[in-house]
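Re: beginner question about structure tokens

> Can someone show what the tokenized structure looks like for a real chain? I only ever see the sequence side.

Sure, here's an example I had lying around. Input first:
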Amino acid sequence: MTGRTGPAAFRSDGRGRAAALLAVLLAAILPALLLTATGAGAGERSAAEPKPAVTLSQKEAGKGGEITVKGKGWRPDTLLMMLICGQSTPARGVIGGTNSCANAAGRAVTTDKKGAFTKKMPVTEPPAPCPCVVHVATVTGEQALADAVFVVAGHPVAALPKENGDGKLAVLAATRLEGDSGLLTWFGAPPSRRLVFTVGNLGSAPVEDPVFQVGTAHGVYAAQWEERQWRGTVEPGRKARIELPVELTAGAHGDYQISLKYGTKVLAEQPWGVGRPWGVTLFWILLCLVVPAAVFRIGMAIVDKVRPRTGHGAGRRRAGSPSPRAAVTARLPKLRRAPAPAAGPAPPPGTTTATLPWFTPDSAPSEHRPTTKGHS
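And the corresponding structure tokens:
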């Protein structure tokens, strides 16, 4: 069998090369097309996910009552904090921060695997006047919140403060904490820093003396918010460098999260690791060593003062008092030594002298002295 030759063979070979090149291009482009389609589908699903929502069993209740709070659309297995807050609306949020909420009567709840929860909550009057809301927010992780309108029966009602023009502030650069801890912080003084950030006015009106809220969170506890006012004006389209003081409680240590909020929007979060005040630990160690030693010394001094001074094994004696051995020796009869014989003629032979040292020649018993033995 003979193969094709000439122009027909060339055309057949060219079609085969084109088909091979097309297959290579499809193999290279197909994975990218699949990834793009997958990403688009994920984006559509993310956009279709419901936002966190809260519903109440009652829209109005008096102090001492109880309501049931239900939520859905939250992240699964997430810890939430529920509060009744005054001076708030769902549109403007909690204007005064958690200072406008009844924090003592708050309740914590954890969402289930589907991001839903149901929890009963007591009705308490908030420190700020109504309009009021039931405020639900995440404690850890990505910030998420939802508000539901609620009326506390019998609680005062006041108008909300006016908004300050159409100015909108946004953080343009990363926040940072500046400052160092002094020697007193090592001994338990409150740690302090300056929260430094740059904001820009994206609105059409100037923002004068903006009031920010600085939140401090430790561990799983909800952030404690405090208002910080910056004196100055940010013109439309301009930016400003702002410094706000941040201070923790005395003896604070561990990992903290500093949050910055303007209005109802959290602008930035900054972690802060605070070292342990080792000076306090050293002080307690020294105290535990010095106090027992001082008590022992005082006790030994008291025992030495009140114990008896006589008897065997007595301690120190008073100056001039005789020792026990000298006292026993003083009670024994004293021995008198015989005087030396005077120089003279030697005694005649046969004369006996007293050999006992405690008898003198004059007091020795006579050999011819009569005794009374046998006489009446």
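Each token stands for a local structural state, so reading them left to right follows the chain. DSSP finds four helices and 20 strands in the chain.
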